[in-house]
Amino acid sequence: MCGVFGIFNSKTPAEDTFYGLYSLQHRGQEAAGIVVADYSKARKKTIFKQHKGMGLVSEVFRDETVFDTLSGYAAIGHNRYSTTGSAKSTNNIQPFSLIYRSGSLAIAHNGNLTNARKLRNELTELGVIFQASSDTEIIPHLAARSREKEPVQQIYEALQQVQGAYSMVLLANNQMIAARDPYGFRPLALGKKTDPLTGELAYVIASETCAFDIIQAEYIRDIEPGEILLIDHLAVANEKPTSLFLPPSERKARCIFEYVYFARPDSFIFGNSVDKVRRNLGKNLARESSIEQTPGEKELTVVSVPDSSNTAALGFVRESNRAGRPARFEHGLIRNHYVGRTFIQPGIQSRDIKVRSKYNIVRGVLQDRPIILIDDSIVRGTTARMLIKLIREADPKAIHLHISSPPITNPCFYGMDFPTKRQLLTHMFDSIENEVDEIEKIREYIGVDTLTYLSMPGLINSVPSFEGESCSYCTACFSGDYPIQVNEATTDKEEND
Amino acid sequence: MCGVFGIFNSKTPAEDTFYGLYSLQHRGQEAAGIVVADYSKARKKTIFKQHKGMGLVSEVFRDETVFDTLSGYAAIGHNRYSTTGSAKSTNNIQPFSLIYRSGSLAIAHNGNLTNARKLRNELTELGVIFQASSDTEIIPHLAARSREKEPVQQIYEALQQVQGAYSMVLLANNQMIAARDPYGFRPLALGKKTDPLTGELAYVIASETCAFDIIQAEYIRDIEPGEILLIDHLAVANEKPTSLFLPPSERKARCIFEYVYFARPDSFIFGNSVDKVRRNLGKNLARESSIEQTPGEKELTVVSVPDSSNTAALGFVRESNRAGRPARFEHGLIRNHYVGRTFIQPGIQSRDIKVRSKYNIVRGVLQDRPIILIDDSIVRGTTARMLIKLIREADPKAIHLHISSPPITNPCFYGMDFPTKRQLLTHMFDSIENEVDEIEKIREYIGVDTLTYLSMPGLINSVPSFEGESCSYCTACFSGDYPIQVNEATTDKEEND
Amino acid sequence: MCGVFGIFNSKTPAEDTFYGLYSLQHRGQEAAGIVVADYSKARKKTIFKQHKGMGLVSEVFRDETVFDTLSGYAAIGHNRYSTTGSAKSTNNIQPFSLIYRSGSLAIAHNGNLTNARKLRNELTELGVIFQASSDTEIIPHLAARSREKEPVQQIYEALQQVQGAYSMVLLANNQMIAARDPYGFRPLALGKKTDPLTGELAYVIASETCAFDIIQAEYIRDIEPGEILLIDHLAVANEKPTSLFLPPSERKARCIFEYVYFARPDSFIFGNSVDKVRRNLGKNLARESSIEQTPGEKELTVVSVPDSSNTAALGFVRESNRAGRPARFEHGLIRNHYVGRTFIQPGIQSRDIKVRSKYNIVRGVLQDRPIILIDDSIVRGTTARMLIKLIREADPKAIHLHISSPPITNPCFYGMDFPTKRQLLTHMFDSIENEVDEIEKIREYIGVDTLTYLSMPGLINSVPSFEGESCSYCTACFSGDYPIQVNEATTDKEEND
Amino acid sequence: MCGVFGIFNSKTPAEDTFYGLYSLQHRGQEAAGIVVADYSKARKKTIFKQHKGMGLVSEVFRDETVFDTLSGYAAIGHNRYSTTGSAKSTNNIQPFSLIYRSGSLAIAHNGNLTNARKLRNELTELGVIFQASSDTEIIPHLAARSREKEPVQQIYEALQQVQGAYSMVLLANNQMIAARDPYGFRPLALGKKTDPLTGELAYVIASETCAFDIIQAEYIRDIEPGEILLIDHLAVANEKPTSLFLPPSERKARCIFEYVYFARPDSFIFGNSVDKVRRNLGKNLARESSIEQTPGEKELTVVSVPDSSNTAALGFVRESNRAGRPARFEHGLIRNHYVGRTFIQPGIQSRDIKVRSKYNIVRGVLQDRPIILIDDSIVRGTTARMLIKLIREADPKAIHLHISSPPITNPCFYGMDFPTKRQLLTHMFDSIENEVDEIEKIREYIGVDTLTYLSMPGLINSVPSFEGESCSYCTACFSGDYPIQVNEATTDKEEND
């Protein structure tokens, strides 16, 4: 996963992009970069400038003087997710910028192409060379080979050839282009900002609307699935970007896991509030929960794994109370504010120091009480297990773990950085055919008293529906129902963006 | 303010101290350091090794290889608070280590001496030289001039001469010493850890118990006000540290603001759970609140400023519900996880970017509703004002700001890094004699619909009482009632620790 | 200009390359990189690993742990010259590594292609995209488009299409390839090293033989002009690399300026000792010099600009003595050992601080004496002027500046990082048709008493001759006689390697 | 050893000091620091600002913005020598700055006190604490205990109590003080600079005059042995600093090794040109040499170990020629320009890589010839041995090693960073009573054909004599004749400055 951001017609595009990326930091912590488009009087054309590096946005741009070298009128930026295990090459840091037939191009991409291997093979057979192992490079290569003259047409042609998930923003000479795949896997939003001094209009593109909030830009609408949006100085003057549309897909496939876990709760994605959806997840989880008040307890004590499950926990409490099962929300776990990517773990004394460095327990809340612990999902199960071990130190009477989504049973081929199937916790118990038995085994492994997953209908019921669409979401990680056939050869998932 | 940590008889004292400081990071972000005591076979005595630097613990110790140079059997560490405005000299980074008559000494100190200026003047008159502007150096100077032979006796003698607030941990050759002033201003706790492999006992000292949790040490008890605790290899063998006691003060003066804001909620300080006290503050605030449910709203919507006010907000909701005024807790503000000391703010476009970088609003929660916003305290008022401006963007019907402590009216001379009196928000309206009118002015300045402070009785009622003590807490910042007469010359507060 | 290095069949290829690049540091100080070929058991093929960065080799590889990640059996490396004025993009740091039809390819290139613009245009028309502005990328693109199967054949085909100066080393999967253009502009040498423990043979490629000396490798021979040398495990086993040869050019064009200034005196280039050639330059300069002993002086005092002109000065002295004009070599200028790329010049108080930071005068040597100052060349003249100003502070009776090469009158299009024609000192006096008058103007500008340049015949007489070659050297910068017609469009020289 | 610098009444004291330290870099590479005196309008007095760090001057001050924080009117600076083996504590970085009875004091010190241990013991007995293990701290402690009111008088009183070698510069509030011990062990010079714009006079103090040259300051005179010089704004106005004099010592003891090796050849120290003295050393070495021309060789080939022995080699050649034994100077060894403190040696493949990284041979010069190799001194012998091994690779007919100083037989207690007696090469053969036999053993160990040391009379004859002084130099390292009795307890030489 990754975060993308773009702004056009700003006096401070690099600074705006810095803040945008900063607010999208949760979408990728491994590397960050900004490419700026500036008009060069000497060369009488737009030139690109860039700064990229490994680490958090605030680390890569730690030296403030770098902004002096990044003046211009437009910029795009990218946060890269930490890809585990693979060689962490600086070649892979986006945005990629390059020179081709029609001038300069820069691209920041979030997603995963499902026919990447096939296209790569075809292109290499034609003599194309690749700098990096990422899918992203395929797109400019296809665009460069297009016979079209206009970059936006080249991109259009290129995107007709790729399959899979992508939300991207590009700079093409003096234009900014935003594009989203026809399935609409990944979010991408359009906003605008009016300069408080000059009244000039800037257009903004971002993975999530929290990036608009930080620079006081205003959300206009989502980039539609299949839309290719062109912003140039004319579009600014007319206050009207123009759009092309890729042939529609037979269904839509918005990533439901963005709502479950990935996006920030203060963002709007797919046109809806993440916070609201998570609240629904919690409510439905409460409806499905069978945990009853223990005699002697006035209420159910509901504890969330902060901060990702806070909203679901509030929803759970609300619905529980509404339904006559008194419950209260509690902060039983404290999240350390200073956890960051640069955190080292010298002399790892015990294997759970990583969990201890991130969380601590509030004894008074947990001790001698049965607690309902709300978490959003379980991927590998290792963190959950350590966390339960940590909570046990506070001597709760019981831990009833409630997961606000169904079991993850399948890898993602559309950009979510899940492990391979073999590494998923559910895989450990694949041989068990009975689902009830399987969950019992997981419960045992994690070390909780009871384990409740939200049902698939409960999940679907929590997310907004889109009129006129037969199928709006991708639930493949829960259901195995992959919207796009995946080339088996791609499934080793060497690298996602 | 600062955080201190010490461990004795560990195989990995520097690593343990790293984790301890890491969990005490909230007590000081400006600088960090570790001094290790190791036995040198070559010199046949204990030698000290150190590593110190500006920045967060994780930054100062970013290079893992530094731990290779910090082997030993005991260590102390220190987090320094960011002192605003003053020259940020590396001379001031603690622990201070030095060589004197009886060997080597290292000191990590949290607090502020009220007779520092007088002692400093006396000492300089005697020819003493100071490296740094901090109070802390006075103590080893006094110890070095003692005629006692044992370091612990020298420290005892030194501490009889100083007045004010201090909680400190020292290494003196092959001993670790912990000391707390007779008033007990700052917290200091004793713990122990049993090595899982060897079964060996290590003693641990920390400002807050969250530092025990992270290394799986166990809380034993607080260092008592006036106690000087000596830990050496004999103490470990006997499982019995020895103590000296300074002459008792006429009253105690535990810092009530540690409970209100400073300490981590998962810590125990002064022998009690911070979380529990904050909950009480919220409950009492609810009792004192006059905000009624708005017609058309089923419940009061209670929003906290995360994360410091979360617990108080939960207490508020609980008491409110108990008292028949239905309320619910909501996450209306999201705190950015990636805020850190190294955060830069290029091209500050608007003055509120700092607040926007830290918080964002959850529109769905705030919009069109009257909200009760819980914050722990207001110092200068600038952040509060910006935050309210930010919340207003979500169009709440009303903002009822509730502060879970009384107005701060006086500076702290015992180590809390408050500004001078002139910089306190309350000072702005000093000329207004009527307290009601003053709060009305503050309300207007902050920009909220109503403003409620917890009363002083409400505050006192929230904190644990200590048997046999006439006065247990320092409330000077709220009440002006200073437990120790402060030398007027000191009140410019050039530097606290 | 740049330095290249490669080693095949070493146990420590990255370390060897580090030392090789370190000894070639004078060929490029802006950036450095190493790509290693390692056999991956997991993937059952050779994979590439890399580390690159801006700065000196010792800075880029300052963190020793980087070598832990660079294990393998072969490596190539590159030092990039500081290109003045242009945007210093990290995209341009070599070796470039990439993935194409036949696997992995990495390239380190020293030189400049004269038909780069044309090829680039043709390639971009075909849809090729470029990452960087350097010429180097063209070569792998051409190779990737070849229909040949073997990388070495692809390179062969590619090099048939490019014109200009190049000496390069490549990794192609499990092979190392070295290539030099048919004119032989830039040096490139082949060496070997026998592992002292295992007796195993490693082949080494380097721009200059000083890179062999540092790792105790042995010089075998030069890579011939037009030769493409293939080294693989078979070549090692047979102790016999194989070669292909490009069609020969009508003449050779070894860069004579490498001998004059660029190469290290302890290197062999073009099969001959640089030191010896420089000595000849000095001798011929002495023969051409008209400076006579001043009455009252026993000898001529000959001072060199250290360290580049030391050998020429020694040759001058030797020939002078032989010819009966007593002369002695003196160190009248001291070169600061600590000058490096990272040197900052805060608050530039006077414009000559840069010269003062690099050199200082030895008064006793210079004072009250006429001195013959030997320098290798004058490019822009600014440094020379400052240096003369500095020497004047020692009050020499006269400064007779002798340059051990003719005036530089033309830019270099084959890789030497000269400025454009307009920036050359000689250009300043272009309007003066009489050469004698022109040199008089230059003398005046530099501020010396007399100015003597080595004549073109004196230059040619100093360098080794190659049997059977009508023309062996490129002297274009002195003579304007360009061996390869230069596309006018290329002459803006945006970027050399 | 160390370098010190100070400037008073400059507009850019930190920048000047930076350049001064930069040119004194050879006197200490481990750490560097600058303390600036600035007038604070707010506090109505002079305040000190500082920046210090480990590494070369150019590394410590790599971030140019640090100079923005170092404005003022005066500054002192210090380069610390690399002390091998001991813990490299940042506590030891000079200048030390401190606060005491009379205000602020900062000190930069070059030398070694011989009664340091005694004074330290006395002071610690009185309750003094030390931050660092260096001698330097003793001086401000003694000054602080003085009953004098004026800092210069306090320093005077302090220096009457210390014995040993010191050349130092201090800032005391708004004054700069320079002091040199009565024996005059270490050099210290006074200079002045006139601001080119304002015509204002600045006084400058430096270890060597090369630091004056770089900032275009002018040498006035040496600080006399025993002189304490006071520079303040009055001194500037009157163009007349004032001096106090310590009681004279019975003899002088200028460090003769400064002339032999340590100082830069372009400096004047002890009022005389270092270059000239080294030339004399070479001449006397020639007079004492018994190496005759080999039949078949026209001349003796004289090669120096660059750059320290260049001048001696030139003197050798000159005298040799004068005496009718034709000789010529050759550059047979090339010194790498990029060697610096930050140099890493990954995977040390062979033990001599350190020597190879610093030097390379010029084969053509060395091959098949007997050479006279001039080096200034041999301390441990390890580098010399490796260097000879390297030279042997060029197959010289013979290596006649000539050392331009006598054998080093004794450690230095006055600041030169020699090893202990046990680590000196000569100690290896202590049991051999016959000096001739001992030198034969050393010759064998080093691996040369013949070995010639300059005789003690030859040494003495080379250095300038001072009228009216019975004894002017310290030759203890060669002769064992220690000018100041050394407390045996001090001889373990834990730390020099």
From TrEMBL, chains A, B, C, D:
UniProt cofactor(s): [4Fe-4S] cluster; Mg(2+)
EC number in record: 2.4.2.14
Gene3D superfamilies given in the database record: 3.40.50.2020, Glutamine Phosphoribosylpyrophosphate, subunit 1, domain 1
Cofactor comment: Binds 1 [4Fe-4S] cluster per subunit.
Pfam families reported for this sequence: GATase_7 (PF13537)
SUPFAM superfamilies registered for this protein in UniProt: N-terminal nucleophile aminohydrolases (Ntn hydrolases), PRTase-like
A GO molecular-function descriptor: 4 iron, 4 sulfur cluster binding
Sorted UniProt keywords: 4Fe-4S, Glutamine amidotransferase, Glycosyltransferase, Iron, Iron-sulfur, Magnesium, Metal-binding, Purine biosynthesis, Transferase
Residue ranges of the TM segments: none
Chain residues that bind [4Fe-4S] cluster: 255, 412, 474, 477
Annotated pathway: Purine metabolism; IMP biosynthesis via de novo pathway; N(1)-(5-phospho-D-ribosyl)glycinamide from 5-phospho-alpha-D-ribose 1-diphosphate: step 1/2
UniProt-annotated binding residues for Mg(2+): 308, 375-376
Keyword Iron belongs to the record: yes
InterPro entries: GATase_2_dom (IPR017932), Ntn_hydrolases_N (IPR029055), PRTase-like (IPR029057), PRTase_dom (IPR000836), PurF (IPR005854), PurF_N (IPR035584)
Sequence ranges assigned to domain Glutamine amidotransferase type-2 in this UniProt record: 2-234
Catalytic residues of the enzyme: 2 (nucleophile)
Catalysed reactions, as listed in the record: 5-phospho-beta-D-ribosylamine + L-glutamate + diphosphate = 5-phospho-alpha-D-ribose 1-diphosphate + L-glutamine + H2O
GO BP: 'de novo' IMP biosynthetic process; purine nucleobase biosynthetic process
Reported function: Catalyzes the formation of phosphoribosylamine from phosphoribosylpyrophosphate (PRPP) and glutamine.
Record-stated family: In the C-terminal section; belongs to the purine/pyrimidine phosphoribosyltransferase family.
This protein's name: Amidophosphoribosyltransferase
